[in-house]
Target: Glycine--tRNA ligase
Amino acid sequence: MVALDAVVSLAKRRGFIYPGSEIYGGLTGFWDYGPHGAELKRNLKNEWWKAMVYGRDDVVGLDAAIIMNPKVWEASGHTKAFADPLIECKVCHKRFRADNKDILSAHEKEHKETVSWTEAKQFNLLTEVYLGVTEPKDKAYLRGEITQGVFVNFANVVASSRVKIPFGIAQIGKAFRNEITPGNFTYRSREFEQMELEYFVKPGEDKSFDYWKKERMKWYVSLGMDQKHLRFRDHEEHERAHYARFATDIEYEAPFGWSEFEGIHHRGDFDLKNHKITYEDYTPWVIETSGGVDRAALFFLLEAYHEEDKRVILKLHPLLAPIKVAVFPLVANKPQLVEKAQSIYRELKKNLVVSWDDRGNIGKRYLAQDEIGTPWCVTIDYDTLENDTVTVRDRDTTKQERVNVSKLASYFSEKL
Ligand code: ATP
Model:
């Protein structure tokens, strides 16, 4: 299995993910996405939106505000129940989540002296913000999950669009949690992005839960996850969130153990009842699929990372790859080649994310593109000037084939 360190180092070196505010020493739990990371995340979100909204007749999109009236969080139960148990090591005063027994026993082993722990107390994860100009300022919260924005707009969406139950509202956006122990790279961050569907059904309807479980698993596999590295894990009754009728996680076999990727929750009528929202003469039930964009980015990077003959290759699905095609003139000092290569580059750039490289030799350029997962490299050589064909080199097989310049655009669009 790939080591997490190898991916952390590649992510930094190749412009995927940097520590947040790095020049000031960083800030625990915050990360910045570089040029390739920003593309990867954007691709993930686009694919999700295509599958969950554009590809369906029963789902519409929403983009709600991050900060909402604090009454939302009181009604939803978050000001009381959105908490993790926190305990402190009395020797070194480090704080931990009390429900993670493995980490606690690892910490105990770190000490020579016997560790004793404080009593666990509930620590609320909502991040407070203060608004307004007069003191005392008004307290509000950065949203701890994007879900509530959907519920509070349920009636607006019903009134302003043609949806009828069963239907879903999809949303992608930032959420914030004051996590006690951020860690495992971006896996547990304090700022992260979620992609969620809230699917509204008639009371008593449970079959959509199984349907969405299968759909979501299929989506990850369709984008290149090996089914062997994924599994469902049903929540036991005691670990279910305060709102869930049933809940299951899709987990990935990460270097730090099986870890949650996405939660599928049957929330019953808990939320709409809390907000006193009805539809016709009843309170709908809700099935939720709640995935993390950052966890998806991390797990797809881990899944794609390969080392072969000292070559690092990111075997990302072409739809997720930050750059689809790289264009090279065979050499940089032959104006005719460079001009031809530039015109091909400009043409492909109209419809695809394409990069240009004329540094060093071709071998080095291939290695650099392999490391960021570019599926195809196009080389313009002397034959191109004779017969208008180029070589297209495939990242995974390293095979090269000659393709006519006039067919290049359709060659790539057929593969994407
Ligand atoms: P965990 O048990 O790991 O704290 P959770 O069960 O509280 O997660 P949910 O509230 O179900 O998570 O959130 C849905 C999704 O949002 C998760 O599956 C995950 O992909 C993402 N997510 C939640 N918390 C974080 C975080 N701190 N950093 C990054 N992504 C997160």
